[in-house]
Amino acid sequence: MNTLVLNCGSSTIKFQLISTDREAMRQDADRRLARGVIERLGGEAVLTMQAGDGPSHRYGAPLRDIRAALDHIVRWIVSPESGIGEVRNISEIHAVGHRVVHGGEHFVRSMLLTEETIRAIEQLTDLAPLHNPANARGIRAVQELLGHSLPQVAVFDTSFHQTLPERAFLYAIPYQFYRRHGVRRYGFHGTSHRYVAYRYRKIRNRRLEDTNIITLHLGNGCSACAIQAGKSIDISMGMTPLEGLVMGTRSGDVDPAIDVFIGAKEGLNPHEVESLLNKQSGLLGVSGLTHDMRELLDEVQANGDRRASLAIEMFCYRARKYIGSYLAAMGGADAIVFTGGIGENSPEIRARICAGLEWMGLSVDPDANTANGKGGAIHQPGSRLEAYVIPTDEELLIARDTVRCIEGEVDL
Ligand code: ADP
Asked: Is the pTM of this model over 0.90?
């Protein structure tokens, strides 16, 4: 089944075309036929398109909205110029899978979209004002362009975390705010945590109910997830993605009283303070240089910049604290799994996060840590707590969930 996987944002659309079915899933023989990114929607958009493992092409095109962008993507896919030999006709796109940021409490698993489920996604706009409207517009645009009978599936960033117990998802504030406004921890990056947990199970030959791990998704956004018996029981991101680890531009955990204090001192309204914590904090805010971890590491190596070094140290320290607290919450775990741009590519950050955890039974093997960027074990033989690097692939999981939903069965 050829599935178009879409991640529709307000100014950016990412897509992949993935061929998969039950047999391909069993054999790990899913095929990525194409991928691309459209940036700066609304004016002269910038497109980067790639068929299979071929070269990527970058060009500009005037695309005013999501619908125009999707129209362009579909035409490109079926055109001979794209080089995707096996999809020559729109009817050969068999399904569409959408990444949807917020599923609230309504969606506990991926769902085949109907008028009712699309409305439910639209109604969650309150909780994800930046993301859900764009996701819903993408779903509607596909209906208009490819017809209402084409199966579409939504895969939610939040749904994996709907297994959190109350004690973990509630904030210790007056209970009625949960009842009235849905104020609670939802967590995000669920597709990534779920995918790497699945890969870990495959590597270790474990059953779902025997999977007890802590997954660290470290990219521009960062989160830690406690997975017990295969289920998410705690997640560092909260009601919004702002809470938890130090991220590229997000502060992660802060004392909430800081909001009012900074607002008063700097003459900022609550929205401006929230924006400051989301967009000008984290690695960028502390270093004053960049949100990009690789650039920070280079800066420290080349010039020994003190604040770049401090930002990195804070990033690693916070991650280490979360590992400790989740190990306590879970009563121990079997492994820590690193994923995301930083988690997959930086042996130095992995080593620094794990430094000093030997007493917990985690010994990282320096050679394996340096060698295993592409995935695999990085602990020393005999380490009681194991550590792995497992590249994430959210698009693949979305394509697979799409097939499963259409066939009427979704599992973890
Ligand atoms: P997103 O969360 O937007 O998907 P990624 O998962 O691609 O982002 O992660 C981006 C982050 O990964 C950036 O901070 C980038 O510097 C970092 N990164 C990528 N490669 C390396 C590397 N070799 N060493 C250190 N950091 C890296």
From this structure: yes
